[in-house]
Amino acid sequence: MDEDKDVPSADHDSPWKEALEVYFEPFLALLFPSVHAQVDWAQPVEFLDKELQALDGDAEQGRQYVDKLVKVRALSGFDAWVVVHVEVQGSPDSSFARRMHRYYARLEDKFSIPVVSLAVLADDRPSFRPSKYENELWGCSVSFRFPVRKLLDWLDKWDELEASRNVFAPIVMAQIREKTERTLERRKFWKFKLLKRLYELGYNREDINQLYRLIDWMMRLPEPDEERIYQEIKTIREQKLMPYVTTAERVERELGLQEGLKQGLQKGHRQGEVDMLMRQVTLKFGEATAEEYNGVIASADEEQLRQWAEGILTADSAKTLFG
DSSP characters for 128-189? Predict the structure, then answer.
């Protein structure tokens, strides 16, 4: 079946780059568990994008792939660099295995450290499965093998993904459905289902917001459909996440906002807006959060204060509100 022409082209590499940085540990746990088991996760990981870019300044432009370089600490005590290559194109790239070998050889030569190269094939071609690079001439040969995960293979064990509590599973599911569902109706169905699933699994609010944004970024739909899904998910979010507010609590909150406004007007227009916003943040998110963002609020201009005062009415968290 031909792909629906009304579906906007999706941005694959950007959400993958961010997803790997935010959820690197669960990424390895889900797709490369044997590597995950060798890492000392009590030690912080370090992303070395500048070092990787310096190795490949002449990289081909316009290709849809993601390369990340991560420094980790092994349980046995040594530092190791993990290179993650994500191929997200719809058409096979004959140079993929060579690129894997090139990065490996250059990193090992320049930094003299242990290197592990991992490949994630997020494309839609079942037959595209590079797992080694080999070259031979007149008795001189090179053979380089690397672990590979083909996301399409998860279609045969979809139940495992749905049952998984790993926070990287929704990203894998979204990528698979983005690549395999060809009609607008099917993509709408799966985008709504995956977003709804975030609330049903009971992830914390921060993860829900992060995963929602990544899935929304990865699975693009026409604007009217995006708005319709947003409204449906908004209703679910309010039911799942927003605590019940009694009449007495609503009255108390309203009185508190009115008192904050009254006091603010007495202290001057801008200072009044600062005080009122601080009062709103305290009432909605608590004193500790208000104290945390006190300096940010106090240094903001009047326009920014007004935007925050309006945005707090629908914000799920202070982090979302203040960006």
Answer: ----EEEEEETTEEEEEE--EEEGGGGGGGHHHHHH---TTHHHHHHHHHHHH--SHHHHHH
